[in-house]
Predict the 3D structure of the following.
Amino acid sequence: MDMELLKKTYVVTGATSGIGLASAAALARAGADVIGVGRSTERCRQAEMAVGSLNPATRVHYLTADLSQQGEVRRLAFMIKDRLAADGKVALDGLVNNAGTYTYWLTLTPDGIETQWAVNHLAGFLLTHELLPLLRTAPYARVVTVSSDSHHGARIRWDDPQLRRRYDGLAAYGTTKLANILFTVELNRRLREESSVRAFAVDPGLVKTDIAMKGTPALVSWAWKIRRSGGTGPEVPARCIQYLLIEPSIQHATQQYWKNCRPARASQAALDNRSASRLWMLSEGLCGIGEWSS
């Protein structure tokens, strides 16, 4: 157990299964307090009990929120602030934007946004915005967003970023994973004068999760089941996420996209500063937050 982590608190979204659950468990074992986030009340209860039992020296709390809805993201931010205050804390040491989804058909959220765009990108963008004051209060803090090598070959169609006119689930997924890295690039640019907050995007690799088996045609579910059989367990990317959250030596690292605790090669499109700035402004508009000052 890392004694230094006993003083730290990390938020992990999508923390009731897969990479998120494994990340929450790894942090708790290491001695950190964990605030997990999930959509199902019952699954949150089960995960809280399981993760909380791993280390009696840590505090583990799970909060329920549907991150496809921006009102829920804002409500979650308030709950996190209240939870920290109840634990006598004024700072947040890290945020893991892990929650993600895949939809085969075009599906809109109650906010009128394509579901993958809402969950995979905008939820993390908005939650980071809401929690940034708490992150800035920490001695050093990290924002880790789970991307994917599916971003390679993807591009944002600026005249139709949500692909509403000709929807393709896989293309939409790749676009949101590209957006995860562009968000990281622009966040770091806007925080460049600060040494306290650093952002990273992580490629988890092929992992044995159920992401493409929910609400998809039988053939798609079968294909994903075959493909994921060659993947790793979620503990593998969880180790990289934990490294990016707590490793002191990378606080000023210039590399922004990582895999297996090492810098990885992102696409040229993912590191384009002009696209990152353009996506940021688009995201501000979709979240209705006006200009997000640095």
